[in-house]
Structure formats: C-alpha cells, structure tokens
Design brief:
Elements (H helix, E strand, L loop, with lengths): L1 E4 L5 H12 L4 E4 L11 H6 L7 E4 L2 E4 L1 H11 L10 H30 L8 H25 L9
Parallel strand pairs: 1-2
Antiparallel strand pairs: 1-3, 3-4
Helix pairs in contact: 1-3, 4-5
Length: about 160
C-alpha cells in the first residue's frame, strides 16, 4: 500500500491526497512535519534529504516533491485523464504544474508566512503587500485562462 508521510494541513501533501482521491488510490498517511515534527530525524532525512513533506513510499520506491509524486501516480495508476500520455496534451498539465511552483507558489508562500505564521507585531507590511500584488497578478492569469477556455486549465476535465 502507498505510504504518505506528511500532515494533511500541508498544501503539498494536499496535492498528493487530492491526486489519490481522483484516482481512487488507497494509502496510509502518517502525520509528519509542522506541529508533528520529525522532519529533521536522521531516519526521515535518509528518505527525504530536504526534510520536507510529503514523502511517499510505493514498494521500494521513495519519492518526494509533490508534483513529481502526482505525475508518478497518474502515470502508474491509470491516471491518463489527469496526466495524458500524448506529449502535446501533457504539456498543458505540466505547464500549469510548473507555473504553480515558479509563479504563484512563491508569493502565496510569502503571504502564508507573512500573515499566518508571523506574529502581528513582527509582520513586514511592505513585503506582504508586494507578495499580495504578485499573487494577484498570477491569479489573474488563471482567471483570464478560465474565462477564455472553460472551467479547467489543462483540458476538458480535471
């Protein structure tokens, strides 16, 4: 059975859990990271040298990086509707996955840390406003794409 290490409150773990739900993949999940700790345990670092979540184990294969895990699951668990075999169709999925990491993820992470994980008296309003503007600009790209092409970013269905 697929084993997932990571707390369900992690957005990166949520991506993997959502992929599992869409593909009806059974798994066992262990709370790890954040308030549960364990990220710097030597045994965990042998699995994932980044000390982050998620880490997924499928038989003898150990994986980390949520988008890579989702690609693997779709490729190995009849997930062609999420990750098409056709390279031209697949490029649309990969483009948005990479965009999430490089364009919208950084300012959203800055907002999370600036507004949620930082005490009010220690917040940097200028940094938060800069992240908000970058996030808004990025989300407008999604909004424009959905308005132009339909309810999904990379095809006719999720």
């Amino acid at each position: 059975m697929l084993k997932i290490w990571g707390r369900s409150s992690s957005s990166n773990v949520q991506k993997v859990l959502w992929c599992c739900a869409e593909l009806d993949i059974a798994y066992e999940r262990t709370d790890w990271g954040g308030p549960f700790g364990g990220n710097q345990d030597p045994e965990y670092l042998k699995l994932n040298p980044n000390g982050l979540v998620p880490t997924v184990i499928d038989g003898d294969l150990v994986m980390w990086e949520s988008n890579t895990i989702c690609r693997y699951l779709a490729a190995t668990r009849n997930g062609e509707r999420l990750y098409p075999k056709d390279p031209a169709s697949r490029t649309h999925v990969e483009r948005w996955m990479d965009w999430q990491l490089s364009v919208v993820g950084p300012p959203m992470g800055q907002l999370l840390f600036g507004l949620i994980r930082t005490k009010p008296e220690a917040r940097d309003p200028a940094a938060i406003e800069g992240a908000r503007r970058r996030a808004l600009s990025a989300w407008m790209i999604v909004d424009d794409e959905i308005r132009a092409r339909g309810p999904y970013l990379a095809g006719k269905e999720l």
